[in-house]
Specification:
The chain is α+β, with helices and mostly antiparallel strands. Helix content is 15%, strand content 51%. It has 2 helices and 8 strands. It has helices at residues 4-7, 82-94, and strands at residues 2-3, 13-17, 26-38, 41-47, 50-59, 62-68, 74-80, 104-108. The two termini are 25 Å apart.
């Protein structure tokens, strides 16, 4: 899942690929906004922006996102578990936040 500002594209866009959910395993969204969250989960995160580091981050277990598809049609997605973690991680990029700012137990690759 990549957010456009992170990928140096001129719009707020996201592309998410989950191979375990074919055939519609690619979600393209533009101007994504988190509408609501619930629950919580802790998990290990890493990032291409901070190579060689890992940390434990608390995220919502469920996230509702509203966005536009490539044709400008608005849609909503409910993300749960790892999908919710990925959505929140990438939305943080849009706000200029890296996971290391939220992580506990930050560590280096072995």
């Amino acid at each position: 899942y990549l957010k456009a500002p992170f990928a140096f594209l001129p719009t707020e866009a996201a592309l998410l690929f989950f191979p375990q959910y074919p055939p519609s395993n690619i979600l393209k969204s533009y101007k994504p906004v988190i509408l609501g969250t619930s629950g919580s989960q802790y998990g290990v995160e890493g990032c291409l922006s901070v190579k060689g580091k890992w940390g434990d981050v608390k995220r919502p277990r469920k996230v509702t996102v509203e966005a536009f598809d490539r044709n400008g049609k608005k849609f909503k997605v409910v993300a749960r578990d790892f999908f919710a973690r990925a959505v929140c991680h990438e939305n943080d990029h849009l706000d200029g936040i890296l996971y290391v700012e939220k992580a506990n137990n930050l560590r280096d690759d072995a």
